[in-house]
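Re-running DNA-(apurinic or apyrimidinic site) lyase to confirm reproducibility after the cluster update. Everything else is unchanged from the original entry.
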Amino acid sequence: MPEGDTVHLAGKRLHAALAGNRLLRGEVRHPRWAEHDLAGLVVTGVASVGKHLFTRFDDGRSLHSHFRMDGSWHLYRPGMRWRRPEHEARAVLATDERVAVGFALHDLELLPTAAEDRLVGHLGPDLLDPAWDDGKAAEALRRFVSRADHEVGLVLLEQRVMAGVGNLYKSEVCFLLGVSPWTPVRDLPDPMAAITLSRKLLLANADRPEQSTTGSLRAGEAHWVFERGGRECLRCRTRIRTADQGDGVYARPAYWCPRCQPGPAPVATHRPAHRRTGPGRY
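Result of re-run:
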């Protein structure tokens, strides 16, 4: 699942390419919406809400999309060859100068713009909301500490608490806080620090395709622990450990340094580190 900054960046680029322009081609290749031709509509804007994207039109409707694990939006000039197979295209929005293609978008819905809250109203405060303020921070904190008995790694991922954190930032925030991902929220000395740090990291990477939490973009140095299982900790040289956190289909690998992040932890496994190419990064 992509991080909130990936979706934010996709929305920003789509907005710059499409907003204010009339569609020459507007296809939604989904059985439920296939009969809806969007050609002729003007795109009034594209906005991200957590990990959700809304492309809004001048007829009062929005096209909602969600990347899930493998979805992405690509931008092309007319006539350019697509970088993914055409059978994976789920939406095509073309103007005179740009062609936006949504690939492998499992969640697509046309709905009234005024009803967008039906799909995102359950979310916690969006960490990349331009209108973020003390009130939104306080609401995120209220939701966060209400999960007092839950593992901090899982609460960071819970979009109903605050929207935007994925597995990368979950692992990195826990490292920078110096706690194991399995630490109960009630044992955090400063819960607000988890929210502040999550927002800081997302903002730092919101306007570029590369994601770094260390301040370096060099290969192997961009993250403290994420996808570095079996390698040495960049801070103390202890071997980074990995283990699944969560149940069933919701389980995600957690990465942590047992020396820098004391606290409860399961028996670790060593996953080989690999290069990440997140969905939606282009």
